[in-house]
Design brief:
two-stranded antiparallel sheet, 351 residues
Length: 351
């Protein structure tokens, strides 16, 4: 009772928590542009982006516009997409352990993208834009979608969908994807091997403007469609039977949302590699701060996902400076202990 009363005290109305998180995200984005081996001040940023200001040194302007700003924007979009998909999957399956990575979607998307890198890597020199925007996202999406349908098929029977079976199937699919990635690493040439290594650990260093545009379009598309299903997700919190009595077509809703999550994760993995645990941690923080209402939880999760991935990316840049750690390592170090604690609390439900 005391824990429930404490958690209710920590919750804030949406009119407060969403603008506050947006403000924190603005400060974090500014810090993300400042942090790095080359010293950049806030005044430099103002001078670059505000007309009529005193010009800065050309190399400072180049670093801001071509390196740190693209990386910061990609970080915001990828963090938002992963957190949104995590919030939707946890609401859809009514299980706090559901996550695109845990049920194997990220592994399948990564495997699809790895196929594209290895099999079509020779075309990169002639068609670099095609490889960046076309082949890799499509294969990542197909890998994530196929994995999602396999896991969904294994976990569903006449009585409904078993989340426990889906989680176990996701573990098996993830192991299978890891083995297939190992085979691709074995047969890949040097360039493809470097690209694959970068992917499997996750990195935002390769941000490009076409990729950023794709990521933000995906984020906006998913946010609009997910927000339209917020009431249905709220009804699902009562149970599938209750949701059906309220007029929700549960099976159609599952197919739509799972497919959209696979698409979002596929695009995110194709642009940044495997970045785990954002979709697992962020929705829990959102529910702690605002409650389970998806009308507030979805926008708050997108903002928190962007904020946490920005912080993780800044840590990746400064922890081992001047070297840079893959951001996937930072999110794994932060998320794995959180997942273990969560798994311990949910042990009774899984038995």
């Amino acid at each position: 009772m005391q824990r429930r009363r404490l958690s209710s005290l920590l919750r804030f109305p949406s009119s407060v928590i969403i603008p506050a998180t947006g403000l924190l995200l603005f400060f974090a984005a500014t810090a993300s542009i400042i942090v790095g081996p080359m010293a950049i001040s806030v005044a430099d940023i103002w001078q670059v982006f505000l007309p009529g200001q005193q010009s800065v040194a050309p190399h400072i302007e180049l670093i801001i516009q071509q390196v740190r700003l693209p990386r910061t924007l990609l970080c915001i979009a990828i963090g938002g997409v992963l957190a949104l998909c995590g919030a939707v999957m946890q609401g859809l399956f009514r299980n706090p352990l559901a996550d695109p990575g845990i049920i194997g979607v990220s592994g399948g998307a990564s495997l699809g993208a790895a196929f594209a890198i290895v099999l079509f890597g020779s075309l990169a020199a002639s068609f670099p834009l095609l490889l960046t925007l076309g082949t890799v996202p499509v294969f990542a999406f197909l890998g994530g979608a196929i994995t999602t349908w396999i896991v969904y098929f294994l976990g569903t029977d006449k009585s409904g969908t078993s989340v426990t079976v889906m989680l176990l199937a996701g573990v098996a699919i993830g192991a299978l994807s890891g083995a297939a990635l190992g085979l691709l690493n074995f047969y890949a040439d040097d360039q493809a091997l470097r690209d694959l290594s970068l992917w499997t650990m996750g990195s935002l260093a390769g941000a490009t403007w076409p990729g950023i545009a794709l990521a933000f379009v995906t984020l906006a598309f998913l946010f609009c469609l997910f927000s339209r299903q917020a009431n249905a997700l709220n009804a699902l919190l009562l149970g599938e039977s209750e949701a059906q009595h309220l007029g929700v077509n549960v099976q159609a809703l599952k197919r739509l949302l799972v497919l959209l999550c696979a698409a979002g994760v596929g695009v995110a993995v194709s642009l940044s590699g495997v970045i785990g645990f954002i979709g697992l941690i962020v929705p829990h923080l959102g529910r702690m701060l605002s409650g389970p209402n998806h009308k507030t939880l979805l926008p708050l999760s997108a903002l928190l996902g962007a904020l946490i991935l920005l912080i993780a990316d800044m840590l990746a840049r400064v922890v081992a400076a001047p070297a840079e750690l893959p951001v996937g390592i930072i999110t794994a170090l932060l998320g794995a202990p959180f997942f273990i604690v969560l798994l311990t609390k949910q042990r009774g439900r899984l038995q």
